[in-house]
Amino acid sequence: MVDRMASSTLQDLPPLPSYTLTPRPSMIPGVPDIVCQLLAPVIAYWVVSGFFHVLDVYDLCSQYRLHTPAEVLKRNHVTRWEVFRDVILQQIIQTAFGLVVAYFDPVETIGKEQYDIAVWGQRLRLAQGYIPKLLAAVGLDALALGGKVHNTYPQLSGALSGGAYATTTFAPWELSVAKFIYWIGMPLIQFTVAIFIVDTWQYFLHRAMHMNKFLYTTLHSRHHRLYVPYAYGALYNHPIEGFMLDTLGTGLAYLMVGMTVRQGMWFFTCSTIKTVDDHCGYAFPFDPLQHVTSNNAAYHDVHHQSWGIKTNFSQPFFTFWDRLLNTAWTGGDISARYERDRIAAQKKVDADTAMKASVVNSPEFNAERAKQQARSSQRQVLDDKQGARVIAEEAREEQEVKQSLRRSTRRKSGFDAKAISDRMAGTLHSRSPTILHAD
Asked: Which residues lie closer than 8 Å to 195 by C-beta, 6 or more apart?
């Protein structure tokens, strides 16, 4: 009997079912799935960013902050409004690109699921044909083993016999495994490959933007105005960089692995949440996103510091490219560097506070009243017989003082090291986002 079943499996496979395709109904009635795909990442971005922003504003969970509020205030070279504006612009570009891609995509259909599951069942049946050969390689007689367990475990007997079953349909275990492969296994593989594509795309493009001076000064330097990252600054980029790095990278991964619209919605949303979490500025011990992968807020924050800007390029998921290409931070303990920056920022805040306190009791200045007083004084002087002469003398004295200052400036040496140093420092400070770390 075993011999008969073994020969039949080579001749026959369970038939594939017929199917009828129909358009996939919307996940939310009245809202196309493509709209959900494009809106879900945007909503997730602001919900998660809003959570971290509340922590910032009310100084909650401060023990887990990577930077102090003073550092956010004094070390960043861009206002929160500018960050918000540029992020909105990038999300508009992302949405427009998604609509263009969706326009060329065919309409998604359903009805072929059971057929595809049966295809995987056939593949499993064909794969069983190699079991006797594999067991024979280690000295076991698969057909004899199948005959011994045929009455007790008929499905195991069929598998050991090379996929020979008494019926012409799929065995229950074959259908179960085929369903698992179709509904869970393949989507997991698609997500894994898509993550690899995104990490690879972003690593090499991100690294190029640091190694190439033109790309850095023209595009990427804008993102590095945030020396102290915060959550909703995750997508703060030059619009061209944002499109190339984030929109195009995830879009290509989505298309290359053949995701459905709903799979793409989850992939884009997860990528967005991970990017926000990497810029949140908090190192939570209970945040799963910061422990599932080695790339987290603490890892990426090093890249935003002046001393770590040429390291830790990987984003947003894993760090394998940094490890393979030796671009991970290897400078040892960074606590002293962080403490130095905290102290420097706090000193600036304290100096500003002291300056404001020194004028807290000064009388309120009324500009309009001051103008009225000036006009009244001018009329009084002009009405006086000697008024015109007094005004002329004051004007002449003021002109003599200006001329004296110009002459003294020309008599000075042409080389003033301190003045040149101060001027260069001011220039570098004002342009630091574009040139300090371009080389």
From this structure: 253, 317, 318
CB 122 within 8 A of CB 116: no
In whole angstroms, how far apart are CA 208 and each of 128, 237, 313, 325, 433? Answer: 48, 15, 10, 13, 17
pLDDT, tens digit, for every residue of 130-189?
888 888 888 888 788 877 887 788 888 888 888 888 788 888 899 999 999 999 999 999
Interatomic CA distance for residues 61 and 304, integer angstroms: 22
Domain ranges of the chain: 38-107+182-325, 112-170
Helix (H, G, I), strand (E, B) or coil at 402: helix
Give the pLDDT confidence of 37-90 residue by residue, as tens digits. 999 999 999 999 999 999 999 889 889 999 988 888 889 899 999 999 999 999
> Contact, 210 vs 312, CB < 8 A?
no
Whether the Cβ atoms of residue 200 and residue 319 lie closer than 8 Å to each other: no
Check: pTM over 0.85? Answer yes or no: no
Query: At which residue do the structure tokens 């140093």 appear?
Result: 421
